[in-house]
Amino acid sequence: MVTLRSTPYLLLKTKTGNRRLPLKGSNHWTFGRSDDNSFVLPDRWISRNHAMLQFTEQSDFYLIDLGSRNGTFVNGRRVSIPVTLRHGDRLTFGQTELEFHYPASKNNTEPSLIREGEPLTSALHVRRLISVMVVDIRDYTVLTRKLDETVLSAVIGSWFRKSGDIIRKSDSWVDKYIGDAVMAIWFHGYQGVTKQETQKICQAVSALHKMTSALYDKYPLPFPLRIGTGINTGYAMVGNTGSGDR
Description:
This protein is an alpha+beta fold. The chain folds into 2 domains: 9-101, Tumour Suppressor Smad4, CATH 2.60.200.20; 125-239, 2-Layer Sandwich (Alpha-Beta Plaits). Helix content is 21%, strand content 35%. The protein is built from 3 helices and 15 strands. The strands form 3 sheets. The chain has a 6-stranded antiparallel β-sheet with strand order 2-1-11-10-7-8, with no helix packed on it. A 5-stranded mixed β-sheet has the order 4-3-5-6-9, covered by helices on one side. It has a 4-stranded antiparallel β-sheet with strand order 13-14-12-15, covered by helices on one side. β13 and β14 form a beta hairpin. α2 (149-169) runs antiparallel to α3.
């Protein structure tokens, strides 16, 4: 069987024409004026570190504003928490416009590329021991009522970005963004959960707690931030439908 899965990309619209920015080779990309970004956008209205695009194990793309001064917009609406992108969405950073393209989903196949009479390849699902962690910001609703939208965007963008860094360093990844929360997954061997794996998960929780507490010293917050953490370890059926780099 021959299958085709389109590479997702952003279409950058400029005065001289359109340019494709392929989304491959990583699971997260950053945008801004600074040279250390994945995509450098020379727009004076864009912050040095403006926004981040995160690809999750569920094959979803989330756009996260990193506390930019002039905001990040999707289809004309300002982004304050991570938002899931859909094919054809219009992104605006400053005066720069991009269009998100991801027509192929993980469950789609192109009929013309399947030979007649040839059976479809079945997805592989196996029973694995995993640990799932969900971390959220406590009293987030109260925070949204007391903070200016610009400050809130900066705080939440910083929290999500740093949370992703901490989780990746602990040999996991952000599997999903859920409003003001992140979900991460660790896979364990068939011998069970090792002491080292347990230690990494606990260290990740500790690092997330310290990082969250430190935001009170950096931003004009009405109260210190706290997190709630839930961890569950058990067996689950997992498949091979995730991204190819993990």
